[in-house]
Fold:
Amino acid sequence: MTPLLLTHPACLEHVPGGDHPERPARLAAALRGAQAAGLTPDTSALPATRADLVRVHDAALVDALLAAAGRHHAVDPETLMSPGTVDAMLHAAGVALEATRRLLAGDARRVLALVRPPGHHAERDRALGFCFVNHVAVAAAEARRLGAARVAVVDVDAHFGNGTQHIFHADPTVLCVDLHEDALFPEGGDLDDRGRGPGHGFTINLPLLGAGDATYAALVDQLVAPAIRAFRPDILLISLGFDAHRADPLANLELSSAGYGHLLGRLAALADEVAGGRLLALLEGGYDLAALETATRAVARALAAPAPAAAPPAPAFTRRCADALAALAAGIAREAP
Ligand SMILES: [Zn+2]
Structure:
């Protein structure tokens, strides 16, 4: 199976400048990795519209961002707009929308979307942390609009995906699972934050310290997979940040490039099992260029391969932990809309 590779050249035109780590060379490196795995970029996606964005963002934020098109503007000292930023963000969101539409129409089964700027820190009312609009949230809302009853989002970026989680915090139709480095950036993402109101129980935070390939594999097999099986999503969206790579300069996690490949292989197998194979992996962070290239190549190869067999349970979890995980999955199964 050849996964679909979506990207757009406008995503290179967001240039925060100076020595900002979120630089155009990141996307070029990821694309080299995907092409080395045999994927051919499709750049046909149209930009997102204002109407697409206001499904998950306040109109005031969207209008303020659109008004900054063509000029430099500092949202905060780290979140910097250049003359090409608005075009880049609209095309990045447009790629996320195109991927979602093709997956739900049955025109693609696995999509790798390589875009920038990243999106998962963008809140409903605020740009933050190198992010302007939240592409994975835009994709989740589009999936719901097109008839998906339930959408699961798994965020593997090293940073807590605050924006995505908060946008769907009270929404029981979007399960948000977030694996991130504990106490990195931004605040939040605590283990005991399980969502609010009708969305309580549909948020899962896994704050980690120094976790590597084996820990990620065990968490996905023993916690993420049972939760997603219980939830029965129609589509699986992955916020694919490569800054959990051991080479990344902004975080302290220990995934290898091969580990990213195994992780996405497991998630693709899960999508095959419960979501009709519909999986979208959307680039978020990742700031070491060599790691971006090799990890993207590993992910592209994993998505092109048949699903791996389920791994045997890891022995690291105690009985009490296993019981808690079973209760969590049973609760999600009972309450999923
Ligand atoms: Zn990140």
User: Anything to note?
Assistant: The chain has a mean pLDDT of 94. Residues 157-159, 241, 243, 284-285 surround zinc ion (CB under 6 Å). The chain has one domain: 4-335. The chain has ten helices and ten strands.
